[in-house]
Amino acid sequence: MRSLVRRWWPFTLRGTGALLLAVAAFVIAERAGIPELLYFATLLTALLAASAIALLLTRGAGTVSRVVSPDVPEVGGTASVLVRAGLRSALPSGPGRWVDALPSGLSGRAEGASPATGSTLSGTGGAVQVRYDVVGVSRGIHSLGPFEVTTTDPFGLLRRRLALGRTTPVTVAPAIVDLAVLPPASGDAGGSRQTTTLQLGQGADNLVARPYAPGDSMRRIHWRATAHRDTLMVRQEEQESSPAATVVLDRALSRWSPLAAHAPGSDAGFETAVTACVSAVARLVHEGYTVDVVDSDGTLLIDPVEGGDDGEARAAAAGFATLRARADDPARRVVPASAAALAGPVVVVTGALDPDDRAALGGVAHHSALPVLLVVSEHADLSRLRAGGWRAAVLRPGADVAAAWDEAMDEGYARVGR
Fold first, then answer.
1. Shortest CA distance to 99 belongs to which of 90, 89, 107, 109?
2. CA distances from 54 to 49, 88, 89, 176, 285 (A)
3. Are 143 and 167 in contact (CB under 8 A)?
4. Contact 347, 322 (CB under 8 A)
């Protein structure tokens, strides 16, 4: 209640004192017949009126710019916000306060003291520049602002609040958790960056020698190898390739709380699944895989992320800022048909499973060199899936994604060791 009264009461503490003193002086002057007090009360009243006129001459420039760095913060990550706002005033204004309205998806202390500003007539102009930090609370697109400045008159008697400029949208991406490295066995499917040899045709500058094949340019003949082997040899082209991996995020609403279809951040289980998804993408990309991220119905959720580019993996996470659960499709697959037969790593992130889902997953693990299953649930029996080849772990809503990933990797090691 006190803050509400202060917000709408236009007088500062000094101005409130001046107003009470003026009223008291008028009353005493009238009852006691002291003309000097009447002059004093009139002077105070005139001073308050002059202060009000000075504030009326102050206008917001209407332009507010915000620079957020990094421009896409993660959930739990910190971003710096630089705000520049303009003020126009025919008279100098005293120091005041500023506040930038924060949405529920961001937390921080976006308020502070603003300095006195000069008169625009004198050329010194009025501009407020402030900086503060915010922390991402939930993923989504959140609006910063409006920016509000409280100015005072040159005498510090009255204050006026000005809402400046428009709001600024800020995208908060899901957090990327640093996951443990992939097991060495994944290299059988092309794990870290590998070299693929092209056996035919017109190469560029090649690195090793091979026998001449029709169509090879004579300029590519490797004369030293030809003399050594007594047969025409050409330099063989080698090029670097990124093997493919797939991450499946099952968005079917039946596996999540109904809240998962509402605003991002509403369902803890679905939020944990999104974090697990982007973290798995970042790990696979770091290992050199080009990663496709698909829904369980086969829909491509983002453009493929090139292997080896960690920055691109983090940028891709911004594409999950507004992702929500969807209505179930008739097939109710956990893994789309396009990903079920892949030989490369397949990471599946899903919610509650029923017996039919477990049966459908049983045959998928045999095709993949690295089948990983993360089930976001309070409890799930994954023993049969593990026996069928899955590196599987239960990930409770809000729990540590890295710990569940380690459990899945350790389960694979234990299975191999038996």
1. 109
2. 9, 12, 8, 52, 61
3. yes
4. no
pLDDT digits (tens, 9 = 90+) for 238-259: 444 558 999 999 999 999 999 9
Tallying the residues shown for the chain, one arrives at 418
pTM for this one? Answer: 0.76
Dump the DSSP string for 19-30.
HHHHHHHHHHHH
SS (H, E, C) 376-392: ECCCCCCHHHHHCCCEE
Position 402: which residue type? A
Tens of pLDDT, residue by residue over 271-299, are 999 999 999 999 999 999 999 999 999 99
Which H or E element spans position 357? helix 355-362
Residue range 314-351, pLDDT digits in tens:
999 999 999 999 999 888 888 887 766 677 899 999 99
Cβ neighbors of 80 (< 8 A, separation 6 or more) are: 68, 69, 131, 132, 133
Phi, psi of 32 (to 5 degrees): -95, -10
Instruction: Work out the average pLDDT over 191-200.
Output: 39
pLDDT for 187: 42
Short-list 196, 250, 288, CA closest to 374: 250
Tokens 């956990």 label which residue?
A: 334
What burial letters (b/e) apply to 79-93, b meaning 16+ CB within 10 Å? bebebbbbbbbebbb
Going from the C-alpha of 176 to that of each of 89, 349, 394, the distances in angstroms are 47, 15, 19
Phi, psi of 172, rounded to the nearest 5 degrees: -110, 120
Residue 181 main-chain phi, psi, to 5 deg = -65, 155
First to last CA, the chain: 68
CA–CA separation, 354 vs 267, rounded Å?
20
